[in-house]
Amino acid sequence: MSQTTADIGYNSRFGIEGETPGTYADVAEVISITPPGMTRGTQEATHLQSPDDHHEHIALLSDSEEASFTVNFVPSATDTLFAAFNAKTGKYQITYPNGVMLRFAGIVTGYTPPELTPEGKMEATVTVKPSGKPTLHAAE
After folding, report:
1. Comparing C-alpha atoms, which of 34, 26, 3, 41 is closest to residue 80?
2. This model's pTM is above 0.85
3. Between 1.10.3470, 2.30.110, 1.20.1530, 1.10.10, what CATH number should domain 13-35+64-137 receive?
4. Which of 20, 41, 84, 87 would bridge 60 by S-S if both were Cys, CB 3.0 to 4.6 A apart?
5. Hey, is 133 helix, strand or coil?
């Protein structure tokens, strides 16, 4: 029996493309990342001569679910996440611990600043809806 190659998410990163195409700046102090899931609908396509008296289905267009990430929030007049929300669209990259990258264009649909409490750590959450198909890239 071979050993597992399973890993943990430690050392993953979330990046936002900068002014230079293909160059991504990592967001600071990311606590967690939920990559975009993928879904695909189906349409029944049964006809009067479908084999074995069984329903047939065809695949419809695929879609990507929203990605999100949470950071330790540090107030700043030049908040990168606030700027990403106001830019509406952008390009994003999730880098996994082994260096494989998931890249996608998207629309920032949510930016939730922290609740301010006497003793709670400030955290902000950002949600991004991919537009188009995410792509995987080999580690560099």
Report:
1. 26
2. yes
3. 2.30.110
4. 41
5. coil
